[in-house]
Amino acid sequence: MPLKQQEAQAVRKPNRYTDEQIADLAAYVASLGPGPAVPGKDQYTPSGADIGFGGNLFRTNCSSCHNFVGAGGALADGKDAPSLRNATDKEIYEAMLTGPGTMPVFSDNQLTEKEKQDIIAYVQDVKAEPDPGGAGLGRSGAVAEGLVGFLGGIVVLAGVAMWIGARAKRAG
Amino acid sequence: MSEHNSEKHAPASVLAAASHASEEESVRPPLIERVIRPQDADPKRARRSERLIALFFLLSAVGTIGFIAAYVAYHPSNSTSETQSSNVWLGASLALTLAGLAAGIIGWVRWLMPAHETVQERHGLASSEDELTDAAQVVMTGFDETALPRRSLLKRSLGLSLGLLALPPIVILRDLGPLPEKKLRTTLWEKNSPLLNAETGKPVKLGDLAVGSFTTVVPKPVDDMTPEEYAKTPVLLIRLEPGLNKPFPGRENWAYQDHVAYSKICTHVGCPVGLYQKQSHKLLCPCHQSTFLVPEACKVVFGPAARRLPQLPITVNASGEFIATAGFDEPVGPSFWERG
Questions:
Q1: How far apart are CA A117 and CA A111, in angstroms?
Q2: Which residue in B195, B199, B273 has the most chain A C-beta atoms within 10 A of its own C-beta, making it the best mutation to test that interface?
Q3: How many beta-carbon pairs below 8 A join chains A and B?
């Protein structure tokens, strides 16, 4: 905050406003009309949440745009669904409640507070999952790994083949 | 022809050194001059190349020792981060071993081994007349000994047995059937089917969805459906801004208070169309980017889909829960052979 420029998709960047200034802005906007309040810490903190059920909810409601591990993905009209890698519990909760940008709203009647916490727990758990192979490659699965392996490997093999087949150097 | 024969039986010869009669050049590639590489001209240069090759082999040896060291140092069963270190170092050291070996061998061949080109003569592939006659005789003797031309009973019964053997592969094609009958044309949705949340199984009530919300609904709990039934069943219930929906002619009462319901199965190849963009009211299919405009009865505005998403007529019952007023009036999902 504030937005850098008007474009299809706002990118994540460091805040220029302090937390206090943002709270003041929110209070002013709240005075103009009804809307959801800023959630409290006990609302968005997933304590004792059901991560497995959160995963089911995430795959049904969120994964079509945000990818099944929250890596993000492309939308129409030059927009994209951002990666959730840097998203905090509070940000995920607020996003579900208000539907920023092109994201649909998930009201408390549709996904209860508990279900939202389950989703947050799933997102944070899957983010903390280690990558035993070394590089996670966006955790997009076997397709990404196969593509990188194929492209990287074929370039190396082509280089070696050219070296083997190159004309010998002539003296003088 | 005789010339050609004599050439075929000539011993292998070094092209650069050999001197050939002019008529032979027409069937051979042009002579290549002997290559004098810097290593051939300068013994110092050759020694330098030798040292470089030796360095590659040494690197390979270091890689092997590293592999053993990494195997001893890291125990994948201890922790995931140790698994990660183990995988990375085992892979890197083995790569160094093999790459060093390969680089050394290629360098050896390219820099130190003789650089002249040689021709290896090819011998004729055909067998001699005598061998051909002998072989033909063996085959004919075998055939005569079967006495097949004489024994017509054997000939016919064998023909029957082999002929019938062709039938089983044709008969088992039956397993490809039966035809799907009406299964592709119908879904579980019918009059008064409840709209249940696909995850919780609870009925969706009027007011559950905020403006700009959508949810996936099914007519009965997912666990009570077969995979075949579930595959074509999911429906998206979307709440649009008031007054935005432009009903398709003849579907004026299919929506309920800005709530509309459309099949979630793409009419292209049947992916779940789950990417709802609240501001532009577009539904995007993640597989092939078919885009449907929700307020205009989900007409196709982009992508390979050929038809709108089928609409489910809905209303709200006395207890405030959404129900379907009828099933789909067209087959959901992608085209099929008999759809017409």
A1: 10
A2: B199
A3: 109
Token output for A151? 């492209």
* Contacts with B276 (C-beta within 8 Å, 6 or more apart), sequence order: A104, B214, B236, B238, B282, B283, B284, B294
- How much is the average pLDDT of B40-67? 95
What residues 9-48 of chain A have any CB closer than 8 A to a CB of chain B? Answer: none
A91 vs A136, residue with greater confidence: A91
What ipTM was predicted for this assembly?
0.76
Q: What is the CATH number of the domain that holds B217?
A: 2.102.10.10
Note whether A134 contacts B87, CB cutoff 8 Å.
yes
B213 chain-A contacts, CB cut-off 8 A: 99, 104-107, 110
Q: How far apart are CA A132 and CA A144, in angstroms?
A: 16
Q: Classify residue B4: in a domain, yes or no.
A: yes
Tell me how close the Cα of B48 comes to any Cα of chain A, in angstroms.
15
Domain boundaries, chain A: 136-167
Residue showing tokens 């992608």: B334
Lowest mean pLDDT among A65-79, A123-137, B296-310: A123-137
Identify the pLDDT of residue B10. Answer: 41
**pLDDT reported for residue B1:** 38
Give the pLDDT score at B27: 63
The answer to the question of residue B92 being in a domain is yes
Supply the pLDDT for residue B199: 86
- For residue A109, give the chain B residue with the closest CA: B208
- Nearest Cα to Cα of residue A109 among B197, B38, B8, B293: B197
What is the amino acid identity at position B230?
Y
Is the CB of A134 inside 8 Å of chain B's CB atoms?
yes
* Residue (of B220, B290, B209, B221) closest to B255 by Cα position: B209
Question: B63 lies in a domain?
Answer: yes
Paired tokens of B255: 């929506």
Rounded-to-integer distance, Cα B157 and Cα B309, Å: 61
Q: How many percent of chain B have pLDDT more than 90?
A: 63
Nearest-CA distance A41 → chain B (Å): 23
Residues of B in contact with A169 (CB under 8 A): 37-38
Asked if A79 and B277 touch (Cβ cutoff 8 Å), the reply is: yes
SS3 state at A7: coil
pLDDT at B325 over 60: yes
Domain assignment present for B206: yes
DSSP-based three-state secondary structure for A29:
helix
Nearest to A138 by CA among A61, A58, A55, A69: A69
Separation of alpha carbons A136 and A144, rounded Å: 10
What average pLDDT does the segment B238-246 reach?
93
Parent domain of B247: 196-324
Q: Tell me how far apart the alpha carbons of residues A42 and B331 are, in angstroms, rounded to a whole number.
A: 47
Residues B112 and B212 in one domain: no
How many domains are there within chain B?
A: 2
